[in-house]
Amino acid sequence: MKNYLCLQFSLKMNKSILYLLLVGLVLSSCVPTKDLIYLQDKDNLQASEVINQVISKPYRLQTNDVISITIKALDQKLVAMFSPSESNLNTKSDIGLYFDGYTVDDHGAIRIPVLGELSVVGFTTEEVRILVEKRLLDEYFNKEANIFVTVKLSGIRYTINGEITSPGTKILYQDKVTILEAIANASDITVTGDRKTVTVIRQFPHGTELHDIDLTDVNALKSPYYFIQPNDYIYVKPLKQKTWGTGTTGIQSLSSLITLFSLVTTTYLLLKN
Questions:
Q1: What tens digit of pLDDT does each residue of 61-85 get?
Q2: Distance (Å, whole) CA 35 – CA 240
Q3: Distance (Å, whole) CA 255 – CA 261
Q4: Portions of the chain given CATH number 3.30.1950.10
Q5: Parallel, antiparallel, or unpaired for β 156-162 and 232-238?
Q6: CATH topology of domain 34-54+155-243
Q7: Are 181 and 173 in contact (CB under 8 A)?
Q8: 3-state DSSP call for residue 237?
Q9: pTM (2 d.p.)
Q10: Which residues, including other chains, have CB under 8 Å from residue 101's CB and lie 6 or more apart?
Q11: What mean pLDDT comes out for the span 216-227?
């Protein structure tokens, strides 16, 4: 009788431990809501308090950047001399920009018809505009020609990879792009993506730098990496829940664990018999 009671007690204890383990595994394998929400107020700031967003510095051109230069003046025939081709530069297709845009070569220069080579690496687009306009006025146009020059980056090209719905190389035709806009353009981070440590790999004249940004914290707005730059590489790491393979929601995790428990139980019964 005593042995029977001990056996019953032992079975109940094992069941209790098993239930606790199942509950613990289910809870630990779920992705918490706080890991999915962007720009949370973790410092308990007042609702009316303004977050001082970092002021993005003007981008300075680097090698392999592509810029578009448009020249307008009263003398259209003279203007045509400086166009890279007879095609319409206002087209925004990738192919059009690749062939008709001006690529900064490995020596930091661009080649403009008639004007020749101009060293532009380290310049802002505004500084390039002033440089081109000055050369044209000094050598080819007079002040009465009403010359008008615009210089723009041919979109902001970036690559995004990892736990992202639509990874790959993207182009946004804007002067400024935030990392949240870049992610939204790639159809958002997956449920199993780590929003707390999104890595931005950025090229500088002195080399490559890596920086992690926590997008679940509102203080991300203050990060110098909040605004992306041309040729940035964005990598989203997977959460540990994906490595475990137990599911991202409570129902998925419970289903996985029930399946595993059934498999273990069946195997045990087969071996016992």
A1: 999 899 999 999 988 888 888 887 6
A2: 12
A3: 10
A4: 66-153
A5: parallel
A6: Outer membrane lipoprotein wza fold like (3.10.560)
A7: no
A8: strand
A9: 0.73
A10: 66, 67, 68, 84, 154
A11: 93
| Alpha carbon distance 19, 14 (integer Å) | 9
Position of tokens 């929003």? 195
| Number of Cβ within a 10 Å radius of residue 146 | 10
User: Would you give the distance in Å from CA 167 to the centre of its chain?
Assistant: 10
- What is the per-residue pLDDT across 27-59, written as a single tens digit (0 to 9) for each? 455 668 888 899 998 777 655 556 666 667 889
**Using an 8 Å Cβ cutoff, are 164 and 186 in contact?**
yes
Distance CA 155, CA 177 (A): 10
Burial class (CB in 10 A: 0-12, 13-18, 19+), 228: buried
Q: Which residue intervals of the chain bear CATH 3.10.560.10? A: 34-54+155-243
Domain 66-153, CATH: 3.30.1950.10
Mapped onto helix, strand or coil, the DSSP state of residue 103 is strand
